[in-house]
Amino acid sequence: MIVTLTANPSLDRTIVLEAPLEPGAVQTAVSQREDAGGKGINVARVVAAAGIDAVAVLPLAAGDPFDAALRGAGVPARRVPVTGHARANVTITDAAGTTTKLNLPGATLGAAEAAAVVEAVVAATAGARWLVLAGSLPPGVGDDFYVDVVRAVRAAHGAQAPLIAVDTSGPALRAVVEHALPDLIKPNDEELAELAGVDLPAGDLAAAVIAVAHSIVPDKSRAALITLGADGAVLVDAQGAWVGMPPRIRVVSTVGAGDSSLAGYLIAETEGAGPDARLERAIRYGAAAASLPGTQAPAPDDLPHGDVRVSTFA
Question: Would you say the pTM of this structure is higher than 0.85?
């Protein structure tokens, strides 16, 4: 089973334009949709669609409109009662696949509510293979909130504690790698550079990212899956590094593509796949998500059939 925590869920509204976005102009949209969003929920949706048991833990107020979208997505969930409502994020895409996002801060969690979220995660992860801590943190909790979750889960389950994957950025990611030794982090190239406090040099992006990742893996994170958008992804662990290039697709919306990449990696890992196959699956799932509108969760039938070239980095 894979358990995810979405501490700052969002009702994702996606608006599709026929022409490029023009700030200050009045434009007509050709379509719009709403999805239950948040990185952890996105991961859980993809995992569940692949036939693997998944549970999404999230703070959610009674009567929150977000719950209707969550139930419509069919994701098994543990809802932790809170007072504030989930935020609404707006994504604008055009026919060329250019994406503009407006993300609201989310409801403030009080100390008792934050503690209840941690307790719910501890309970949900009994016997789980992975715990995924994903997305931004809501107002009201410290940058070390994910560290608190990791410590509580490992203290409660000991040697039976799940593997920990983290997909966040900024101070929350820095706190995790400094104090919690996750089993996997999944930044993109910009988030990795921010984490390491460096600028990536021009040229071979994969090589630059791998060099930076080696300063973190395995001492501060046992592995790193770094997504590079149209340039594919890389995987770095204590045994080596792998580089993969995506198949050709028509990009519709990049929202949720990184979440789907992480889900693809976890699906392959639970099946016992090796690192090259895990990276291949991550890239294929990310490409599938980018070819779908909104934040739809790709199912196995949505995966592109083109070649995904994975090689060992020397």
Answer: yes
**E runs forming strands in the chain:** 2-5, 10-17, 29-37, 54-59, 77-80, 87-93, 99-102, 130-134, 163-167, 184-185, 223-227, 233-237, 240-245, 309-312
Q: Which of 259, 301, 302, 307 is catalytic?
A: 259
The per-residue pLDDT for range 121-177, each reduced to its tens digit, is 999 999 999 999 999 999 999 999 999 999 999 999 999 999 999 999 999 999 999
Dihedral over Cα of 170, 172, 173, 178: its sign: positive
| Separation CA 161–CA 155 (nearest Å) | 8
Based on the residue annotation, tell me whether 35 is a catalytic residue of this protein.
Answer: no
pLDDT band of 250, cuts 50, 70, 90: confident
Chain-centre distance for alpha carbon 245: 19
Find the radius of gyration of the CA atoms of the chain: 18
Structure tokens at 91: 């994504």
CB 54 within 8 A of CB 76: yes
